[in-house]
Each structure stands twice: as structure tokens, then as C-alpha cells.
Design goal:
The structure is a homodimer. In chain A, about 70% of the residues lie in helices and about 5% in strands. Chain A is mostly helical. Chain A has a single domain, classed as Orthogonal Bundle (Arc Repressor Mutant, subunit A). In chain A, helix 1 (about 15-45) packs across helix 3 (about 60-75). The longest helix of chain A has about 35 residues, at about 15-45. Chain A is globular and about 55 Å long. Chain A binds a DNA duplex (30 and 30 nucleotides) through helix 1 and helix 3. Chains A, B: GO terms for molecular function: DNA binding; DNA-binding transcription factor activity; protein dimerization activity; transition metal ion binding. Chains A, B: Homodimer. Chains A, B: Belongs to the DtxR/MntR family.
Chain lengths: ~150, ~150
Amino acid sequence: MTNPPFNSAPRSVQEQVRQFESVRTAHQSEMVEDYVELIADLIHLTGSARPKDIAERFGVAQPTVTKNLARLKREKLILHEPYRSIQLTEEGRQLASSCRKRHRTVVEFLIALGISPSVAEHDAEGIEHHVSDETLRVFRAFTHDKKP
Amino acid sequence: MTNPPFNSAPRSVQEQVRQFESVRTAHQSEMVEDYVELIADLIHLTGSARPKDIAERFGVAQPTVTKNLARLKREKLILHEPYRSIQLTEEGRQLASSCRKRHRTVVEFLIALGISPSVAEHDAEGIEHHVSDETLRVFRAFTHDKKP
DNA sequence: ACTCAAAGTTAGCTTTGGCTAAATTACTTA
DNA sequence: TAAGTAATTTAGCCAAAGCTAACTTTGAGT
């Protein structure tokens, strides 16, 4: 109940710097990960991932999607020629798959903790990009123990 | 162990849109929250929060700090005249305090879960901006139960 | 009281990810 | 098969948050 009002154990400045840098780095990959995951979903669900649908899901204008797809293509995660359909590359598929696993791990963990499914889904969306491998392992173990 | 390979329960599109929007919104307040919290820390630790020190802690160039302080001032979270010292407003102090509480809640929860302190500290930095009140309450309850 | 180094700011550039409006392409259907 | 509509892209704008280089101010130490 009684938290010390200020950071009492000031880990080294370098360590803190590394943390902030890694948060900034994570932000740069968030967009890519969210897109690849949604594209995989849409292909699975409807047979194709159209910019229109991507825009609608993200709540964003279509030209924004076009612009971001260029980045995915630059990073060799999708195949995409103007006006043609979007395909994931092998690398894109793998990234999508690991993102989805991570997403589910976080959601299931939060639910196992007792958080309502809709809030779990919501919070997972923001949290998933910032969870280290160690934390992910602990999440999985916890969920597994809770409902064997 | 056997996760469905795709999102099986496709919550409504609107709900998903709201989630992505709220993640984008959270990103916009992250900087503000991190700054206010660090400024409070520095004032407490050293008596003042100098742009130099803020830059060093965040691993960022000084002019970046100057620019961001302008935003904090615009949002009435700090008092700051050029070349003069930085003060938190009442609103700034309150924001700093609630951010710090939230940060500690997340760190302590992760540690209670069994995650190593340094990784807990690291992950919390990214996670803290994306946890809802409901999740925060559950985190607190869990930590409290673990070590009474 | 002056000087000068350190701190802080300004100017101006870059990238990222939003947007709208306008142009282009593809597809359907009459 | 030709036209019209819907989808997509292009062009060009904005704001945020990073950077370097150059300038200004402060204040500490002779």
C-alpha cells in the first residue's frame, strides 16, 4: 500500500537509457507487426487482404495503408504490385505467426488472471509489443498452471 | 499448447478499431508521461531537473528535450522560461505521481510473478502505458496476495 | 568585474504515420 | 464491349519526435 514516493533504487543511467531506446525501437516495429498479423488474418478469413479492409480494421484512411504497405514491401514481408493482391512472403508469414502466438499468449494470460475478455483483448494490443521472451515464458507457464 | 492458428472469435470491427485508436492515443501521451515522471524524480533526487540531465537519462539529444518541454508547457504540466529552471505545475505533479504509482504497480506485479527485477523494470517501461484500470486493479490484487 | 566553458535554445533537416483531394485502374453489369 | 462505380494509388499537406550545427545565455572562477 505504501509505495515509496520516488524511485528508490536508481538503476544505472545506462540501463535506463537502454530501456527507453528499446521502447522507441519497439514502437518502430509495432506497425509492421500489426499489419502483417492483420493481413494473415484477412487472407485466412476472406481469401485476400485488401487495402480497403485493412484500412477499415485499423480505423485509418486508405492512403495511409498504401503508404505503410510500401514499407512492408521494402522490408520483404509482402509481395505487392500496384492494384494487385497482397501476398505474404515466407518471412512475412513467419512474423505473422509469431506475432499471433505472442498476442494469444498475452490475451490468455490476462484472462487467466481474471481480467474480462474484452479488456484483455484491448490491453493485449498495446502490451504485446513490449513483452520480453522471459516474461512471455512466465505468462505461458502461469496460464498453463491455472487451467490444466 | 495448441493455439488456433488464426483469430477465431473475431470481435466486432468497431471494437477492434477502437482498440487500435486507443493504442495510437496512448502513444501520444507516453512522451508526456515519461517526461513528467522523470522531471519529478530529478527534482526529488538532485533538487532540479535540467534539460541536460533529462537528455542524458532518455538517451536523446538536448534540443529534442527543449522541443518536448515546449509541449509539456503548452499542456500546462510544467512552468519553464528559457534558461530558467523547470517546475512542475500542480497538474504535472499529480500526473507524475499517478504515473509513478502505475509504474511501480506493474514492476511489482511482474516481480511477484517471478520475473527478474531487471527484466521487470525493462518490460514495465513499455507496458505501463497500455494497462487499463481494470488490469491495474488485478495486478495490485495479485501482488498483494503473493506477499502479504 | 570579466571571461569563458558549459548549458540551453534556435534553425533547419529527416522520418514516420496520419490526413484529404485528385487521378488512375479494375471489375461488373447492362 | 463499353460505361460506370468502387478500389487503389499519387500528390501534397501536417505534426511528432528524432538529429546536427550554430548561436545565446548563464554563472563560476580568476
